[in-house]
């Protein structure tokens, strides 16, 4: 599995397009940005889901995981105009999408991202 981090929303389209062009399976994970104090996401659900999402995707041949942090808590919580909410309908974090040339497809949201069975079915294991 290759992972690509998109730290700025304005770079998102370019990075995702590059990944999709490869023809390989592309997954996009939206999550809360890590805090400097802990180096973990401010979002407790994201902290739980992150290693499980990675474990599920690793066996997928040539998969690409796009890591898309949504910012700090104040940037995300209650902000209905956040770029990722508006453009891609990200309802909550963590959210994991399958992505193709047509854009975002199926998704898992919040606790679904930490459900091993749902993850395995979602990624095609």
UniProtKB/TrEMBL annotation:
Record InterPro entries: Thioredoxin-like_sf, TXNDC17-like, TXNDC17_dom
- List, in alphabetical order, the Gene Ontology terms for molecular function in this entry: protein-disulfide reductase [NAD(P)H] activity
Cellular component terms (Gene Ontology): cytosol
Top-level taxon of origin: Eukaryota
Q: Which residues form the Thioredoxin domain?
A: 6-122
Q: Which family does it belong to?
A: Belongs to the thioredoxin family.
Name of this protein: Thioredoxin domain-containing protein
Q: Which gene encodes it?
A: PARPA_09319.1 scaffold 36060
């Amino acid at each position: 599995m290759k992972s690509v981090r998109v730290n700025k929303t304005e770079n998102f389209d370019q990075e995702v397009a590059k990944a999709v062009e490869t023809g390989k399976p592309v997954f996009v994970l939206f999550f809360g940005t890590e805090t400097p104090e802990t180096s973990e996401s401010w979002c407790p659900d994201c902290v739980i889901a992150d290693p499980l999402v990675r474990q599920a995707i690793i066996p997928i041949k040539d998969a690409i995981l796009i890591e898309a942090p949504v910012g700090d808590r104040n940037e995300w919580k209650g902000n209905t105009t956040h770029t990722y909410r508006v453009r891609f309908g990200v309802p909550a974090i963590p959210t994991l999408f399958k992505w193709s040339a047509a854009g975002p497809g199926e998704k898992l949201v919040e606790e679904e991202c930490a459900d091993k069975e749902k993850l395995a079915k979602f990624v095609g294991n």
